[in-house]
Every structure is written in structure tokens, then in C-alpha cells.
Write a structure and sequence with these properties.
The protein has about 70 residues and is an all-alpha fold. Helix content is about 75%, strand content about 0%. Helix 1 packs antiparallel against helix 2. The longest helix has 30 residues. It is elongated, with a radius of gyration of 16 Å.
């Protein structure tokens, strides 16, 4: 079983991209505590994107060794 099949990769990247866009478009005049939703989202989605990056780095390192 490949945890990072094409569909999973696209989903991880899309969700992280959307979260970053939402955070970037956060109104500056809102209370700073309202930003908590993005911090919580980054903690969840961030772990997925980090896992994917580590997987890709491992794959690249294996390819270089061959």
C-alpha cells in the first residue's frame, strides 16, 4: 500500500495551499485570537505536508544511490 498515491498527494497539497491562502487573506483588523483557526489548521495540515516532503526526500535519496 502506498500512502502517498497521486490522489493523496494532490489532496495534501491542495488542502495546505487553501489553508495558506485563507490565512494570507485574513483581515488584519480582526482580533488576533481569531487567527487561532489557522494555527490549528497548520498544525494538522502541516504534519501531512511534512510527511509528504520527508517521503519525497527519501525517494530522491534512494534514487541518487542507485
Amino acid at each position: 500500500m502506498n500512502v502517498y498515491d497521486e490522489e493523496s498527494v494532490k489532496k495534501i497539497i491542495t488542502e495546505f495551499r487553501n489553508l495558506l491562502k485563507d490565512a494570507d487573506n485574513f483581515p488584519r483588523d480582526k482580533a488576533p485570537n481569531d487567527y487561532r483557526e489557522f494555527w490549528t489548521g497548520l498544525r494538522g495540515k502541516g504534519s501531512s505536508i511534512l510527511g509528504l516532503a520527508n517521503h519525497l526526500l527519501e525517494a530522491l535519496n534512494k534514487k541518487e544511490k542507485k
